[in-house]
Every structure is written in structure tokens, then in C-alpha cells.
Design goal:
Number of domains: 1
Helix content: 40-55%
Largest sheet: 4 strands, mixed
Number of helices: 6
Strand content: 15-25%
Strand order of the largest sheet: 1-2-3-4
CATH class: Alpha Beta
CATH architecture: Roll
CATH topology: CBS-domain
Order of helices and strands: HEHEEHHEEHEEH
Distance between the termini: 50 Å
């Protein structure tokens, strides 16, 4: 399964000097759980990290850091673990494991962040594939029953049957 199939396309950026309260508002407004943190002017396009909704709770609120005073620089994770959009799920899982993160930036051929893939996205994608495999088993069983309509489903095992050893 290709990451392009399961990653989100929503990338919301905020400068590192952005106040936590404003960042939380951006997350709510855009329905995202993470922001790409960029540098302040004059390097405002350069990605410097990531901040998640969990960072706001665990690193800020739990520590008593006021959302009106603190900035993303105070709680963000420096750097952004990334994976290319044409990578497969296995590669994403490996990058997550190596970096100890639950979200990865998905980048295009030029290294520009074009989306995110989360642990939940990966899990949902794998679950969908497992459900498809289960459907294969079900249709195979149904086909076998259709091919043998006279077969009694309640037939018991008979050790003296046609395949018993003598």
C-alpha cells in the first residue's frame, strides 16, 4: 500500500513565534492534529519542527505554561521526520519506529511537505487490507459451497471413510 493512498493532504503551517493559543485555534479551524512549524522571517519557509495537539497538552498545559505567553518554540519537536509520498506503509512504520513518532511529514520529490501520515492512518490502511483478505476467504468458501450443492455441511468425520489408512 502506497502512502499517497492513506496520507492526509492537510498541511497547516505556523511560525515558531506563534502563540500556543493561536496554534490551537489553527488546529481547530483546519481540523488537524499537527502543525508544521516554520522559521520566523526572513527564513519563514524553512521547516524547523512539528507541534501536535498532544504537545500542547503534555508539554504546555500539564506544565502550567500559559497559552497566551508561550510560543511554538517552547513546545515543538525540533525537526520533522519525513517519508516520500510514494513510499509504502512498511517504510513509514520503520521511520516512525526509528524516530519514536506517531506522525510523519509526507514529502514530494522536491522535499516539500505535502501531507501527513499518522499511526492511525497506517493502522486503518492495514485494517482495510486485512478486511479485503477476509473477503477473499469468504468468497472462496461461498464458491466451494456453490460448486458442491449436494454436500452435507453437517457431515461428521469418519475414520473409516474413503481416506482412512488400512
Amino acid at each position: 500500500m502506497n502512502l499517497d493512498q492513506i496520507s492526509s493532504r492537510a498541511v497547516v503551517r505556523a511560525e515558531r513565534s506563534c502563540r500556543l493559543q493561536h496554534a490551537a485555534g489553527l488546529m481547530r479551524k483546519h481540523h488537524v492534529g499537527a502543525l508544521v512549524v516554520t522559521d520566523d522571517p526572513p527564513n519563514e519557509g524553512e521547516v524547523v519542527g512539528i507541534v501536535t495537539d498532544r504537545d500542547l497538552v503534555v508539554k504546555a498545559l500539564a506544565e502550567g505554561i500559559g497559552p497566551g505567553e508561550a510560543t511554538l518554540s517552547d513546545v515543538m519537536t525540533d525537526g520533522l521526520a519525513t517519508v516520500e509520498r510514494d513510499a509504502d506503509v512498511r517504510q513509514a512504520i520503520e521511520v516512525m519506529r526509528e524516530n519514536g513518532v506517531r506522525r510523519l511529514g509526507v514529502v514530494d520529490d522536491e522535499g516539500v511537505v505535502v501531507g501527513f501520515v499518522s499511526f492511525d492512518d497506517v493502522l486503518a490502511g492495514i485494517a482495510e487490507e486485512i478486511a479485503t483478505l477476509a473477503g477473499v476467504l469468504k468468497s472462496e468458501r461461498e464458491r466451494e459451497v456453490e460448486d458442491n450443492p449436494d454436500q452435507d455441511d453437517a457431515e461428521e468425520y469418519n475414520p473409516e471413510g474413503p481416506f482412512a489408512e488400512e
